[in-house]
Amino acid sequence: MDRRPARPVLLIVEDDPPTRGGLAEFLGRDWDVLTAEDGTEAVALIQAHMPDLVLADLAMPRLGGMGLLEVIQTDPRTREVPVVFLSGQTDPRTVVDCFSHGAADFIAKPGRPEELRIRLLHAWKQARRVARLESLARTDALTGLHNFRALQLKLDEEFARAARYAQPLALLLVDLDNLKALNDRYGHEAGNAALRETGEVFREELREVDFAARFGGDEFVALLPHQTGAEAMVVAERLRLRLASRPWPWPQPLTLSIGIAAMEGAMHVQDPASLLAAADAALYRSKHKGRNRVEVASPADGLTADTH
Length: 308
Ligand SMILES: [Mg+2]
Known about the structure:
Elements: E1 9-13, H1 17-27, E2 32-36, H2 39-49, E3 53-56, H3 65-74, E4 83-87, H4 92-100, E5 105-108, H5 113-137, H6 148-165, E6 169-176, H7 179-186, H8 188-205, E7 211-214, E8 219-225, H9 229-244, E9 256-263, E10 267-268, H10 272-288, E11 294-296, E12 304-305
Parallel strand pairs: 1-2, 1-3, 3-4, 4-5, 9-11
Antiparallel strand pairs: 6-8, 6-9, 7-8, 10-12
Helix pairs in contact: 2-3, 7-8, 8-9
The structure holds magnesium ion.
């Protein structure tokens, strides 16, 4: 079974073999240690193992510490991996340079073992704390889905990708029907439970590559990369049916009104806001026709059909 070890993974990058060996042995008390003899070897190991922290020398053949830091920071997958330098080059300009390029810490060689140990653990915990806070800042507390802010970033990203590679992208705008009435009749406990149930249904029905967010009070958005409007229609119906079939203690049933807009084939969409606006127009139609149903946006909703 491929299970990630409970201990954090440290990558030591050092060209001097005795130093490298000594560090690996000593730090092996706290970490699962990987070693590389220069930045180039380190890059390959980072891609393969995603360490929790990198401890790097500055002066090394091929790729030095600063070059390695730059590679780590330009790759979105490794950007958050903290890098601590351990170097004999302790002139103020070098130290300042390391920090201003994003080093998590700088420790002068040879370094006192116990201090090195505690500073590495500190750098790792600090990085983990920041990652957790950033994740919280993108999460809707009630449903555990992404929040509006996260959606804005993701929508821009997915829209640009779909436009660049001429791939379809579907957007579902989902309204939990009559939430206000539910709140008024049965209290906010019922309303909050309804929102949580809806969030649960999104988690159960959507694929790993899809993206679900709570958009506002009673509205949700799902982004479905590579899905056409027709495919999104199937997903939307499943969301609606799944919510209706869940056990629900209050007499007012849980239903969804859904509007879909998709960029696909000859259907051109100017920008992310237009995609959202088209889905909103479709959602409006779905509510207007009596709620608890799905509508797909057409050229009349602001999507432009290519006439070529
Ligand atoms: Mg060196």
